[in-house]
Amino acid sequence: MNFKVLFAEFLGTAILVAAVVGSGIMATNLSDDVLLALLVNGISTVVALGLVILALGPVSGGHFNPAVSIALAIDQKFKVARVAPYIAAQLAGAVSGAVLANLMYGAEAIQVSSTGRVGLGAAIGEVVATAGLVFLILNLIRTKRTELIAVAAPAWIAAGYFFTSSTSFANPAATVGRIFSDSFAGIGPESVPVFVIAQLVGAGLGIVLAKTFANSKKKKS
C-alpha cells in the first residue's frame, strides 16, 4: 500500500467532515431556523460525499468510513491487512476536517462539542443508517454496478438526514471528528461510544442483508 492511497482516504474524510461541520456553522450563522440549518447541512454533506467518491475513489476505493472498510474486509472485497491503516487515515482526516472548518469560521481550532445525542432512538437511527449504507454499497459491488456508488451512497445519506432520528452519521470516523467542533454538527464525547457501537452493529446487519439477497439470487438462477 503506497502513501497516495492512504492520503486519499485522509483527504476524502477531511473534506467530508469539513463540509459537515462548515455547513453546519454557516447555516446557524445565517438563520435560527433548525429545519433550514438541517437542509443546508444535509445538502452540503451529500454533495461533498459524492464528489470525493468520484475524485478519490479511483485511488483508494473511496471508503472514507471505517464501517465501510470493515464491511468490505468481512465480505472479502478488501484486504484485512489494509483495514487498520485505512481507519487510521480516516480518523486523522476526520479530526483535521473539523479543525479546518473551525479555523475557516474564525473559531478556536480545537473545541469539544457540548451537543449530547445519547438516546435509544438515536442509536436505532444509527443502526438503520449504517445498515442501509453498507447493504447498498455491497449490493452494488456484487451486482457490478460500482459506478453508481457515487450517487447511491450520498442519496441514502440524504434520505437518512430526514428519516433517521440521528440525522444519519453512519460513519465512526466522522463521528469522532465531530467531537472537535462545538457547533450545530458537533457531537458530545459522551454520545460517541453509543453511536460507534450502533454503527458497527448496523454495518454487521448490512453485511447479513447483502449476503441474504445474494444467496437468494443464486438459488433462483
Describe the protein in words:
- It is built from 8 helices and no strands.
- The protein has helices spanning about 5-30, 35-60, 65-75, 85-105, 120-140, 150-165, 170-175, 190-220.
- Helix 3 packs antiparallel against helix 4 (about 85-105), helix 5 (about 120-140) runs antiparallel to helix 6 (about 150-165) and helix 5 (about 120-140) runs parallel beside helix 8 (about 190-220).
- It is globular and about 50 Å long.
- The mean pLDDT is about 95.
Query: Architecture, CATH level 2?
Result: Up-down Bundle
The percentage of residues in β strands lies in under 5%
| Strands, total number | 0
CA radius of gyration is 17 Å
User: Helix-strand pattern, N to C?
Assistant: HHHHHHHH
Low-confidence stretches: none
**In one word, what is the shape?**
globular
Question: What is the rounded distance between the termini?
Answer: 38 Å
Give the rounded overall mean pLDDT: 95
Work out the helicity level.
over 70%
The biggest beta sheet, please?
none
The CATH homologous superfamily is named Glycerol uptake facilitator protein
CATH class: Mainly Alpha
What is the domain tally?
Answer: 1
CATH topology: the name is: Glycerol uptake facilitator protein
Structural class: mainly alpha
Total helix count? 8
For the structure shown, list the relevant keywords.
Glycerol uptake facilitator protein, 221 residues, 72% helix, 8 helices, mainly alpha, single chain, globular
